[in-house]
Amino acid sequence: MRVLLTIFLMTIAMSSNAHFKLAQKEFKKSQKKKSIYIFNELFKSKYYFSALPFAAEHIIESKSISRDFENKLEILLLKTGTNSLAGMKNKDLLKHGSATLHLVYALKMFRLNKFKRAVRVAEKIPLNNKFAPEALYIAGTGRELLNDLARSEDRFNKCIKISGQFKSRANKEKLKRYYSVINESCIMHVARLYYKQKQYKKAIDTYNLIPKTSYRWPYTLIEKAWANYYIEDFNRTLGLVVTYRSPLLQSYFFPEAEVLNALSFYRLCLYDDTLTTIDQYYKVYKSRSTHLKKIIIANKDSHTYFINLAFSSLKDTETINPYIRNLITQIRKKIKFSVDLVSYKKAKNELKHLKQKRKTRFTKFLIRNVEHSIKWRTQHLNHYVKKQFFTFINDIHRFSYEMFNIKLEVMSKKRNLLYRNKELVATRSRGSHENVKRTIYQQFWNFEGSFWADELGDYSYGLKSNCQTVKVSKR
Amino acid sequence: MKLAILFILTFSTMAAEPKVIIEYKKYESFDLGNLEVKGQILAPGDLSVRERDRKVFERPLYERYEFNKESKQDIRNLR
């Protein structure tokens, strides 16, 4: 068996090498249309990153592309990432009517905030194409940002339906997961559409469709908490926000969740609890973020510091700063990071194989291109991680201003009570299950001081609103 | 003749303007206690302020109207 396997692998390697040699032979010639021939040979020998410039050349030079080339382009982009061809001119990306190139164009336009263009081209991708769910997701989001909410909902609903069908047809686990993420993302965006239209109950019901096992689920908690805040179920808001304190969600720290926490206590007129939340924010989070800022500002010009952080072990990152560990965990779970990281590793591996070959004009040309591609990918990944860090620090500062505003408002309320010779009905409201709003599907269990995985996201406080005032002398 | 008319006119003008010396009062005193104002009293005699609640100004606190920023980020984090 082992012998058979060795023979099989050797045959593949020999065949791959043969295709590479054919590409090299063609490279020496100076005839037109050689780029498609070299591309095909490099593609067959699985030198995807080396094949990229020849694919780009063929797209620019030719008037039309074949079905075979389109299929190979699909695979090429999945292996090397959509950004690989994003540098091409817009007219070249559009001229062939290729669904793969349309996706590259739509993503490119979206990044440039040109949503109308992104939507127009994303909607051209046929529904039977493997990129259709992603294209509908882009189109729906584009329309959401353009405030075309009815059409946006339609695109998201199509995305949910089609991604579900693709998922059930997919035979590989990785592909199933990809369609699941698209499906859950589209559900989340439908919930956001309801939220935007102040249909908070509908938004909550839609958020609840996302399973707790989903990668998107931790992000739904804060949005669901806001929806509950606006239907004035502050106890549920507090319960949802407190979920982030569970050990399982330790890495998900959102400064905004702390603000929502303080706001909910404030709306329940529990001013001392509000002030405690604010003080804790300043004492713990603000000081830690100042420390984090010092570390990252010192390395802000480095092209490799942040990518190296992302590659280092969680233990090492925790010793530098607890937020670094949490942020790295969050970043590693992001699809973009995983996809970019995979293509970065593949590019490095390809370079290693190229360097083992005999030095010719052709191999030197390929090495130069792949090295350039790796350099660009390193900087791109490093920038991506760095941006996440700086966004986090900026958020801490932005929300620190909001916290200060709440603190001033609490102080103003307390002063007004004093002027009117009144005080709140109780200095600290006690919790009771009578204050918990429940649907017929929800049951009540006491929180015994430990978080259980199946309970996460279903917590509610039982605090009574303390907003009733009484005359001081009457108490 | 002309000279006679001119002489008469000049003389008559000088005779019409006697020298006036205006003198202002250098000191005057008022007894405010004795002053009386005639009329009807419409307002209450004592000073009063109507009780009302203090105007409470509220700061605009943080609100969340949409998740546009997150939606944009979602697509950027896709690939």
UniProtKB/TrEMBL annotation, chain A:
Organism: Halobacteriovorax marinus
Signal peptide span: 1-18
Annotated InterPro entries: TPR-like_helical_dom_sf
Protein's name in the database: Uncharacterized protein
Keywords: Signal
Domain of life where this protein originates: Bacteria
Gene3D superfamilies: Tetratricopeptide repeat domain
Lineage: Bacteria, Pseudomonadati, Bdellovibrionota, Bacteriovoracia, Bacteriovoracales
From TrEMBL, chain B:
Domain of life from the UniProt record: Bacteria
Name recorded for this polypeptide: Uncharacterized protein
Organism: Halobacteriovorax marinus
